[in-house]
Amino acid sequence: MVSPIDIYSRDLESLLDSLQDIKPNEQDLITRAYYRAETAHEGQKRKSGEPYFTHCVAVASILADMNMDAETIAAGLLHDVAEDTDVSVDMLREEFGTTIALLVDGVTKLKNLPPIKNVSPSGDSRRTSTINREMEYIRKMLMTMGDDVRVVLVKLADRLHNMRTLGYMPEHKQKSIARETMDIFAPLANRLGIWQIKWELEDLSFRYLNNDAYRAIAKALDERRADRENYVANVRKKLITELDANGIENVNITARPKHIFSIYNKMTRKDLPLEQIYDIRGMRVIVNTLTECYMVLGIVHNLWRPIPGEFDDYVANPKDNFYRSLHTAVHDDAGKTVEVQIRTWEMHEDAEYGIAAHWRYKEGNRQHDKAFEQRVSYLRRLMEFGPEVNDATQFVDTVKSEVFQDRVYSVTPNGDIIDLPVGATPIDFAYHIHTDIGNRCRGAKINGRLVPLNYKLNMGDQVEILTSKRGGPSMDWLNPDLDYSVTTRARSKIRHWLRKQNRSKHIAMGRDALERELKRLGVIDKVTFESVAHLLGFDKLDDFLAAIGAGDVTGSQITNRVLEEERRKKAESVQEEDLLKPRSKSSGANTTTGVSIMGAGGLLVNLARCCSPMPGEEIIGYITRGRGVTVHRTDCPNMQSLKDTERLIDVSWGKADEEQRYIVPVEVVAYDREGLLREISTIIADQKVNISSVEVSTRQHIATLHLLLEIASNQQLTRILSKIDCIPSVVEARRRNPS
Ligand code: MN
User: Fold this and answer.
1) Catalytic residue among 11, 17, 83, 369
2) 4-217: CATH class
3) Which ranges of 581-692 would DSSP assign to H, the alpha helix?
4) Would the pTM count as exceeding 0.70?
């Protein structure tokens, strides 16, 4: 298991030889770093008995194999000098410049883990101290890598070499180092897209964490090696013939390397025996152009029968660690499953080296830079959110289970970062911020644009949640076919809300609704809740409130009943007054508008179209030439700018005329869906209101409706608007303001 000498280490000459196109000044830098590190570590030994310096060269060699730039390789050679020798960071800065000093300093800082504090008898505090240590470490890593991601690349190379030589460590240390590697470093490499390192770290850790399983899988793979190679050779031949016939040349076809840990993962995840997993053949086809990728895909699908549902186009839709490839699976001639990955060389490098590809020697890959910038800004965000988390447990759990998995980061309008699993929607976002925001979520704007609530959040989206005062989550949100919510948090909160629609909530909601209704009617001081309950035939107030809250008693039922009662009372008192004095007949109200004009009766009265005043609103008259008086709302902008004030005249609403209708413009904004217009018009028709015109415009699934309604009263309008507001998918229903 352990090699007697460190086979990964190289001498200077072979290190330099492994770098293509290296410039003289870079060669000089690496040479100086090499000798500086060798002198500094002189006399130090590793656990294996070898000179310590071999480790430094091995780390540099790993970085060289990743084709990293000269500065990173030099930093790899020097990565341990500040920690373990007399050479200080300041000295490095003088000798090698700021960048190398910063890189070495960063790696050194990452190494200084806080010690595990005294372990108390209780298991809990032990967990806490382990967590604190991990938290501190991750935080440090995030901080340091924000400055220069290459720090983490050196650190990963360092860890990789230490894992390769872990056999020399005492057994108890092997396990804890392997655990740490599995928990922190392998996910980090994955996050950065460096698959090459990720796989190796995982396999090496797995070997120490679950040696039995590791050995069983390794042995099985070994036994089948000849088989597999034979098989690949056959498939290759067949495919190459076909590709040749189609003019696709210089294609690289290999068996996809099998990683032991990934096989183990597949076994546990899919609950399959080993035989079935390693029977799955993996092929990788690397071509020169994107067009060829799709051509190869067509040829593969032509040669063998594709397995439905197994095709993934990560070229059109890259994974969020920027991985690109075409994936498909086919049944081969013997009916066995073959998984095929198709990619260009460029994609291949990206996949193998991830973020490290940016510093690779080969120039001319400028189009990578955009993806690279995204990565860096992503890392910076990771770094920023770290210190704000107070709870250590939560922080480590977040980082370990979520940050390193497939996460999508979006921001609130205040710039707070919200991390959610890929596929999360604005609803998940809303519930993540606050349960109440989730419950009241009515719509969402992404980067200022209204989007459907099942919109899938993208990295970096700015999300603004639109809420309503009333209402709660819809049953639809739990419907898996509609993709409204993916997080368990959101789903459990929605379920909870729906379940809790019990009596006490209904009573509270009913009380609010009743109070609103009575205020609207202007009778809140004249009647008691109890008397209204009796009016509607309820003995107990709570029963009445619960019925309102549950929607069994509607606002209009209350309004009608209360108004009826008010009228009856008024009629009684008028009858009493009648006994004392004769009733005046001159109400002065205009019969077509319901407006009475102070001091100048008999004028022709129009209601202004710009602001469509309604009874109960403050109004003012404006004498127009030849057209009598036009009545505006006092807050109408057209009245504010008026200079000719002598043409203004006081007007007031006359006695309500039940026959009178007012044209009111209304705007409804909603997520477009089937049946929306029908539902809205049903609500309006139920109120016996006529719609005199409708205009609908739809843009990107957002429907805007402009309606002209023939409304009898302000109360009626409010009722209609609040009912429309409660229709699922309606974002807002409001009276259109004068413009
Ligand atoms: Mn080291």
Assistant:
1) 83
2) mainly alpha
3) 637-640, 676-686
4) no
